[in-house]
UniProtKB/TrEMBL annotation:
Protein's name in the database: histone acetyltransferase
One example of a Gene Ontology biological process annotation: positive regulation of transcription by RNA polymerase II
InterPro entries associated with the record: Acyl_CoA_acyltransferase, Bromodomain, Bromodomain-like_sf, Bromodomain_CS, GCN5, GNAT_dom
PANTHER family assigned to the protein according to its UniProt record, in alphabetical order: GH11602P, HISTONE ACETYLTRANSFERASE
UniProt EC number: 2.3.1.48
PROSITE patterns in the record: BROMODOMAIN_1, BROMODOMAIN_2, GNAT
Gene Ontology molecular functions: histone H3 acetyltransferase activity
N-acetyltransferase domain mapped to chain residues: 320-476
Organism, as annotated: Piloderma croceum (strain F 1598)
Length: 659
């Protein structure tokens, strides 16, 4: 008996039941402890629905066979006896938002399987699949008891869809959880500090990677046996450059230890637990009274010492090294370049392998690699310098998925800037193309969408990518980027000292005795008698002329979320800013009511939208203007139609959710 399995990786084209099937394949059964994911029973042969659809017209002989025509049902039952709903795909239990998040992760997992021709091999597993399947687990409580030590927060970060041109995996992956007691940190990229210095599974030699038994909690074993292959070749893709690591959340230190068979920390050593620093009485009093950070009178607070990132510790201990490399024909260089190529191909699976290899081994390209023992490449950047033009193009930027939370990406970018300062003293600008998911990461590294470099300098030297956002970073000659943390700390302290000179916010007065415990009730105090109030610039007229701040309700929050979704849409690049009348001279002769997303953002912030209807009307003007000015078959008109459908779907979904 045959059953179908959805082959599409396009989430909008998948039905809810098809997406649920993909989720169930990679999710453990909630009823059976031994079932690690939906598997077809022994009497079921699974085929791709794509194969059935493609053969229905291509082979006329199939009309005489009842066998193929009968294949209309999708796989529903697992070999454990339970269905899709019991394998993490029950919307009523997990909610639509969690269902969509797991769906994106499941599609990404299927893409990885497709790239290695194992989409129909339900028993195949490797390191990347094991790492990403951690996001399909049931939520884990972040509340720990004294006997449990440090709990691992549940990962509820969304997995982004496939990267568009020049995206950074460091930004593609959502905020990782910082393990500091049971608190969670909200970070926008995977380069923020993590107190876990545990080594990862990829550090083990290939021969040492052995199959381990399933853990009692139902975690997936690390088996690498392959079963039947689908035989389907990976589809080709138009050549696009990308600059980043994949959106795969690596396993946390504790989970990694379980997978590696380590129970006593790194290589047998006890796991180190960060101890919370004790506060003295003055710090507790300052926090209790709600005083600003510059409080404390004439005394200056000593800046708190940040925990050193794992990447910096490993670099200092010699576990990792950062080295420059180019194709000079030397064996060492070729080994490292091959490692870079393999890393980029692994972390950017949608990129053609030949295209990556050609750029990495190009004699005009240069690289900077993070290597471990044995020249194992765990991070790297490929760039093309143009010294005579004064800029460099960043082509690829990636770190191994299991190392992203250690801060490898930020450290590599700092070393890259320092390397450019020393090697190319006259080259002060970087350019790269980034998709919407990569913009946040590059902005943290000093990149901006405002291109100050004259177009005549770089136009024609770097490849143009449709749908990508070109970003620029300009270095400062006096900055030592390897010491930027100390520089920023000194700048912060200098600013606070300057504020103390012109402000009285650091002066703390005792509480009014009229309102202390035991004081009589119904006591009034003249504002003029409140210590420090007059000195702060307060006048009685301020009571009369109180500024009324407009209240923003749930509808305003909904419009903010919708606008953010529109701005982050991959097809929104043409609608983000007003059309440049100098470049498109007749645009404003044809379009009488111009509108764009930045104008909508300004109107929303200034409370110019009385209702959601007015907000949607402005968005509709954008799409109508685009279809009016551009031909029907143009990419602009097509993007406008896709954006219009996206907005309607989002509004309908938000309404259903809030109802």
């Amino acid at each position: 008996m045959k059953r179908l399995y959805p082959s599409s990786a396009d989430i909008p084209s998948l039905t809810k039941s098809q997406l649920a099937l993909k989720i169930a394949r990679h999710s453990p059964c909630s009823t059976c402890d031994s079932c690690i994911g939906l598997r077809p029973p022994a009497d079921i042969e699974v085929v791709l629905d794509e194969a059935i659809a493609s053969s229905s017209l291509g082979n006329l002989e199939q009309y005489g066979s009842d066998d193929d025509n009968a294949i209309t049902d999708y796989l529903e039952l697992c070999t454990c006896g339970h269905g899709v709903q019991e394998h993490g795909a029950d919307v009523s239990e997990i909610g639509m938002e969690e269902f969509n998040r797991r769906g994106r992760a499941a599609v990404r997992l299927d893409e990885i399987l497709h790239d290695v021709d194992n989409l129909l091999d339900f028993d195949y597993i490797d390191d990347d699949i094991t790492s990403l399947r951690l996001q399909m687990r049931h939520p884990i409580s972040t509340i720990s008891t004294s006997s449990q030590g440090i709990a691992t927060p549940a990962n509820s970060s969304p997995v982004n869809e496939p990267l568009s041109p020049a995206s950074s995996e460091l930004s593609d992956i959502p905020p990782p959880m910082k393990k500091r007691r049971i608190s969670e940190s909200s970070l926008s990229d995977a380069d923020e500090e993590d107190d876990d210095d545990d080594d990862d599974e990829e550090d083990k030699p290939l021969a040492a990677r052995m199959t381990v038994k399933s853990a009692p909690d139902g975690s997936r074993p690390l088996k690498t046996t392959t079963g039947k292959r689908s035989g389907k070749k990976a589809s080709s893709m138009k050549s696009k450059a990308q600059t980043a690591p994949a959106s795969i959340q690596p396993p946390t230190g504790r989970e990694q230890d379980e997978m590696n068979g380590k129970t006593n920390g790194i290589n047998g050593r006890d796991t180190r637990v960060k101890v919370e620093e004790k506060m003295d009485e003055s710090q507790l009093n300052r926090l209790a009274t709600g005083v600003t950070v510059d409080a404390g009178g004439t005394t200056h607070a000593v800046p708190s010492v940040k925990t050193e990132k794992a990447a910096a510790v490993e670099l200092r201990q010699g576990i990792i090294q950062i080295t420059s490399v180019e194709n000079d024909g030397q064996p060492r260089s070729l080994v490292i370049l091959t490692g870079l190529k393999t890393l980029f191909q692994k972390q950017l699976p949608k990129m053609p392998r030949e295209y990556i290899a050609r750029l990495v081994f190009d004699s005009n390209s240069r690289g900077l690699a993070i290597i471990k023992r044995g020249y194992k490449v765990v991070g790297g950047i490929c760039f093309r310098p143009f010294p005579h033009r004064g800029f460099a193009e960043i082509v690829f930027f990636a770190t191994a998925s299991v190392d992203q939370v250690k801060g490898y990406g930020g450290m590599l970018m700092d070393h890259f800037k320092t390397h450019i300062q020393h090697t190319y003293p006259g080259m002060m600008h970087f350019l790269t193309y980034a998709d919407n998911y990569a913009v946040g990461y590059f902005r943290k590294q000093g990149f901006s969408k405002d291109i100050t470099l004259d177009r005549s300098i770089w136009a024609g030297y770097i490849k143009d990518y449709e749908g990508g956002t070109i970003m620029q970073c300009t270095m400062l000659r006096k900055i030592d980027y390897l010491d930027k943390a100390n520089i920023i700390a000194l700048q912060k302290e200098a600013i606070l000292n300057k504020i103390r000179e012109i402000s009285r916010s650091h002066i703390v007065y005792d509480g009014l005795p009229q309102f202390q415990d035991g004081a009589p009730e119904d006591v009034t105090v003249d504002p003029k008698d409140v210590p420090g109030l007059r000195e702060s610039g307060w006048t009685p007229s301020m009571v009369i002329n109180t500024i009324q701040v407009p209240r923003r309700g749930a509808e305003h929050n909904l419009m903010q979320r919708l606008l953010s979704d529109l701005q982050q849409h991959p097809q929104a690049w043409a609608f983000l800013q007003p059309v440049n009348g100098d470049e498109v001279e007749d645009y404003y002769d044809v379009i009488k009511r111009p509108m764009d997303l930045s104008t909508m953002e300004h109107k929303l912030e200034t409370n110019q939208y009385p209702s959601l209807r007015a907000f949607i009307d402005d968005a509709q003007i954008i799409f109508d203007n685009c279809r009016l000015y551009n031909p029907e078959g143009s990419v602009y008109a097509k993007n406008a139609t896709r954006m219009e459908k996206f907005l309607k779907d989002q509004v309908a979904e938000r309404m259903r959710t809030e109802a």
